[in-house]
Amino acid sequence: MNNVEEIFQKSGAILKGHFLLASGLHSPIYWEKFQVLQSPSYTEQLCRMIATHFQKQNIQVVAGPTTGGIILAFEIARQLGIRGIFAEKEGATERAFRRGFSINPGERVLIVDDIITTGNSIRQVM
Predict the structure, then answer these.
(1) What pLDDT does residue 103 have?
(2) What is the C-alpha to C-alpha distance for residues 101 and 8, in angstroms, rounded to an integer?
(3) Share of the chain above pLDDT 90, in %
(4) What are the φ and ψ backbone dihedral angles of 10, each rounded to 5 degrees?
(5) How is the chain split into domains, by residue range?
(6) d(CA 72, CA 63)
(7) For residue 121, how many C-alpha atoms fall within 13 Å in the half-sphere facing its CB?
(8) Whose CA is closest to 95, among 56, 124, 72, 55?
(9) Contact assessment for residue 36 and residue 42, using Cβ atoms and an 8 Å cutoff
(10) pTM for this structure?
(11) Quick count: other Cβ atoms within 10 Å of Cβ 32?
(12) DSSP string, 53-107
């Protein structure tokens, strides 16, 4: 498979109905990413698309927020042959790198997440 939507369809991840998102927004469609992320094969294929896109960007570390961002950060980093780290919640509005994770000054970082609605999780990782 070489199409994101096809991967989500095959995994049964595209749900239709009425969904109240964490942001407070409403949606008639919800892409349940964990239906994809539970399958190593689908996860590998999805992350291959992302890794290929950034392959020539000299990325040195891939970072993601907990929870779904961990899986993506690890697999993309594995495919690029670099470090994969994650930031954990710290209070209601911040995230922190713990467990000895750090980003060195000047390192080129790719930040990934499983779903982006408002961008708050990505901003917190930055």
Answers:
(1) 92
(2) 31
(3) 67
(4) -60, -30
(5) 38-125
(6) 9
(7) 21
(8) 124
(9) yes
(10) 0.86
(11) 15
(12) HHTTTT--EEEEETTHHHHHHHHHHHHHTSEEEEEEEETTTEEEE-TT----TT-
Give the pair of three-digit tokens for residue 80: 């690029």
Q: Which amino acid is at 113?
A: D
pLDDT-derived band at 1, boundaries 50, 70, 90: low
For the domain bounded by 38-125, which CATH number is listed? 3.40.50.2020
**Does position 24 have pLDDT exceeding 70, yes or no?**
yes
Instruction: Please state, in angstroms and rounded to a whole number, the distance separating the CA atoms of residues 64 and 123.
Output: 11
Q: Which helix (H) or strand (E) covers residue 40, if one does?
A: helix 40-54
Count of Cβ atoms closer than 10 Å to residue 87 Cβ: 24
Mean pLDDT, to the nearest integer, of 17-36?
92
Q: Is the peptide bond before 67 cis (omega within 30 degrees of 0)?
A: yes
CA gap 84, 63 in Å, rounded: 6
Instruction: Report the pLDDT value the prediction gives residue 96, as an integer from 0 to 100.
Output: 80
